[in-house]
Amino acid sequence: MNKLRAIIVDDELHCIETLSWHLEKACPEVEIIESCDSPEKGIEAIQKYAPDLLFLDIDMPGMTGFDLLGKLSDRSFEVIFTTAHDQFAVKAIKVSALDYLIKPVDKDELKIAVQKAIEKKQEGQKSVDPIEHLLQQIQQNKLSNRVVFPTMEGLEFVDTNDIVRCESESNYTTVFLKSNNKLVISKTLKDIEELLSQDTFFRVHNSHLVNLNYVKKYVKGDGGHLIMEDGAIVSVSRSRKQELLNYIK
Predict the structure, then answer these.
(1) Domain 4-142, architecture per CATH
(2) pTM of this prediction?
């Protein structure tokens, strides 16, 4: 059998090197023809080489892996996504019958994903394009930014882009909006966190969930604290500090 010609697209060089090493050792049926450290370079390489298989990072600066796929007219290759976060994107990938690997990539899971790609390639073109289905799922999610919160007065429909931060006290959570209004919800912070996209919202403390788009400044300290656009000072727990800094970077 001819080898699968593969391209890797990931903005982190160490991730490219690790994946390349695993492929060389565990997946001899895969030949890496190009590695790209930006989505722009990835698009050029895909159009130039027409690979059989694409290993694609989801979270990249300037353009996500999904944005990259949306810019390609020819998507006749198989895709294995790589991501450091198990979030809505992973659910959409599953629904679309595509494969993914959580970073750091596990060698055995990589072998399974590659074998699936080989089998799909041998089966030929499907009547339904799974990548197109995935992009539709992602677009629907982008267009559906509203969540519904139960309040004392009834149901409140809120655009998630308007949420600056959430602060919990026992089984109640106060949701602070960019309009300076606030809602008191009879739900735990964990309940609220599950409603909101992990792309944008981060649990910095047992009592605090913040929208990263409204973070004005991070101040160093034991755990440190955030200064939000609304002037609020939000403590960061020591256990979440490094994860927060890595996530922001």
Answers:
(1) 3-Layer(aba) Sandwich (3.40)
(2) 0.59
